């Protein structure tokens, strides 16, 4: 599964970032769930492990409850999962997603 994503990852990340990403993807795959979050410029900004969402430095920043994405700081709803996107409360796309 990870090998098939190498082309996508190599187009987005530097070599060292790809190695780190693959280590994280291995961890996600061991837990059988995960999402990669991209901003509107198609830059990777976060990834999930179960219901926890981490930034690219592996810091916990958000979490998932049902279809809602909540801020770790104040528990406020940031957005809602919708297919391969996260939408804000007005329906505007905040992030695009790839399931791994």
Note the main attributes of this structure.
100 residues, eight-stranded antiparallel barrel, globular
List the helices and strands and how they pair.
Elements: H1 6-12, H2 15-30, E1 35-38, E2 44-49, E3 52-55, E4 60-65, E5 68-71, E6 77-82, E7 85-87, E8 93-99
Antiparallel strand pairs: 1-2, 1-8, 2-3, 3-4, 4-5, 5-6, 6-7, 7-8
- State which percent range the strand residues make up: 35-45%
Strand order, largest beta sheet:
1-2-3-4-5-6-7-8
> What pattern of helices and strands is seen along the backbone?
HHEEEEEEEE
Helix and strand content put the structural class at alpha+beta
Largest sheet: 8 strands, antiparallel, barrel
Q: What shape does the CA trace take?
A: globular
Which stretches are low in confidence, meaning pLDDT under 50 for 5 or more residues running? 1-10
What's the rounded overall pLDDT mean?
79
DSSP helical segment count: 2
- When the domains are counted, the total is 1
Terminal Cα span: 8 Å
Proportion of helical residues? 10-25%
Q: Which radius of gyration do the C-alpha atoms yield?
A: 13 Å
By DSSP, the count of extended strands is 8
Can you describe what's shown?
The chain has two helices and eight strands. With 100 residues, it is α+β, with helices and mostly antiparallel strands. The protein has one domain. It has an eight-stranded antiparallel barrel with strand order 1-2-3-4-5-6-7-8. It is globular. Residues 1-10 have low confidence and may be disordered.
